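Input set for joint prediction.
Command: fold jointly, output tokens.
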Amino acid sequence: MSQLNQAMVLGERALREAKRTPDALLPTILIPVFFLVVNVGQAAKIFPSGSTEFLQGQNYAAFQLPSSLLLAASFGASALFLVEDIEGGYFDKLRAAPVSRTSLAMGRLISEAVKNLGITAVMIVLALPFGIRIASGPLGFILLLLMCAGWAVVYSGFLQVIALKTRSAAATNSAGLLFFPLIFLTPNFVPRNLLSPAMEVAATLNPVTYVMEGLRSLILEVLNWVVIGRGFAVVAISGLIVIAFTVRTMRTYD
Amino acid sequence: MTDAVAVPAVQAQGLTKTFSSRSGDVEAVRGVDLQVSAGEIFGFLGPNGAGKSTTVRMLTTLSTITSGRASVAGVDVTDEPDEARRRIGVALQEAGLDPRQTGRELLVLQARLFGNSRTQAAARAEELLQLVELEDSADRLIKGYSGGMKRRLDLASALVHEPEVLFLDEPTTGLDPASRLVVWDEVRRINSLGTTVFLTTQYLEEADALCGRLAIIDGGRIVLEGTPQALKDELRTRRALDHEPTLDEVFLDITGRTRERGAGEVQELQA
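tokens >
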């Protein structure tokens, strides 16, 4: 059986697991939607669509949606399921089979990507009543889904490394919260050029900024390949690094 | 032909495992030599913390070997781990099952990971479900299974690829007496089909009932090895007993000598 087939079989199993635990899936949608509602409620009046140039004719919810999409993609629940597998002994059962360690790592990441495609689509549908439209059209919508799914793989991979290293649900859960400082060091509320100088430097150094700007570009404007390309490049590079670390951690797991 | 028969099912030479921790290195296994012939039910006994599970984890590729060598069915577990994994079945101390899958899904997945097509995997799962008498519960989630059912399913999942050597790490711990007997029967049946069984247990009567030969490990070292009868006879002669000793007495005698060496280990044994 090829490594890809093994990863797909394991991915199928992880998707079944997600389907059977809707209570783990619901917060992934509800909490980011909550943040969208609250952030828009607090700041929308400051940035009226008619007079705020960076909204490009849309409302503030369209500007905020990428933050919520990224948050939804950064829950990484599959890492917590991995801890359960480790604690319950099933992970050892899988390791005792002639399964490539790359497939073991990729199975859950594939499921995370597929799951996130659905979550992002649902969130965009939920955002429609806020008056949001995807200015980049159907192709932009697909790219939006793919970029979010890619980020879900990146963050979930990072959490898998933590899960494998610590074998602790508490530590893995805490590591998930690291996303909050990362997202607050992005041009979360206003574009980068309107941030204070120190914040602008921090946001420029933060890779999440480029993913957020890529997503925002797909929502607010016609296809801007430079910004979109930067977003995908960050996802691809950080994805490769994280997958390499995850596979290495799987291989050295004792 | 003669060579094939001569290949030991399990072989270990100078097997050691050292864990590093902040308080220093801990030697869990200190130079274990083992040889198990094909077709045997071999018992591996020892008190808690003696190194049983660590040894099994090394033999089953789940843990790295600090030094020494080990092979299963003639395949070196360090040099060719995937080949070794194809030849062994593993049921560890806690039934390693995914509670969110059904029994059938778990077996199909396991069979597919061993290279079976979807159709072959489904057929093999059906066969194994019948074998361990779980057909009626096959499509229920595992989280609803009883301890005995989980243990039988775990055994079945270790057998999907018809392994040459089956490692069972304390397979009856936590089971009621009736379930324990069911597992014993299953182990005997598996062995009668030609599978070598490497069994760790803390229950001496279990070793006595099932194993043709056994080794006792204590403090990370093998302290006694032989057939249950030979070990009993040796104790009877050495202590000039007027009755046939049980395996419990053999165990306590040998680990009792260890007790004199390290008081800490006695606590575990008495518990």
